[in-house]
Amino acid sequence: MTTDTRTPAHKARLLPQLIKFGAVGAVGFVVNLLVFNVLMLLVLVNVPHKTLFSTAIATLVAIGTNWIGNRYWAFSGNRNENATREGVEFFVVSLAGMAIPLLCVWVSHYLLGYQSLLADNISNNVVGLALGTVFRFAFYRWWVFSPDRAASRRVRGTAPITGSTLASTPDRGLVGD
User: CB within 8 A of 70, min separation 6: which ones?
Assistant: First the structure.
């Protein structure tokens, strides 16, 4: 039998962060969905492989939207003072996460032959988004906005960045809980 040694504050910290991440993701989803469909229906109408291009462009626009929401709201208590480094890490994780819906679209569109707009939307904005969301949350939480980085700033004497009621609650992430 395992004894749960986590503090109540530690347990309470994950749920609000997940809710905030979900809200930011919902905004990113709407941005992605709108940009994808505008590109598919109006901009890239006669472009070969428009589904892949639309997926990539829409995801890049959503990455920018999500960067702002995650940095300044969802993970505000753990953000790094070096915004450039954090931005590069966020972008790397987001690009890796973008490969997931691209792979889903490629499999659906080219391998399985489902080439309707509905099939492209399902493979990109349902299956790809769900799998990519799990991947991104894990890497944002454990690497980009790692609570260990915020803790190391406090040890070095640098004050944590405030702006969230969650900022004062130490957290080691999900690994080792």
Answer: 21, 24, 90, 140, 145
pLDDT of residue 104: 92
pLDDT score of 27? 92
175/74: higher pLDDT: 74
159 to each of 77, 80, 89, 147, how far by Cα in Å?
A: 11, 11, 22, 14
Angle between helices 83-106 and 50-69 (to 10 degrees): 150
- What would the mean pLDDT of 121-147 be, rounded to a whole number? 84
Torsion sign (Cα): 132, 133, 137, 140: positive
Domain boundaries, given as residue ranges, for the chain: 19-156
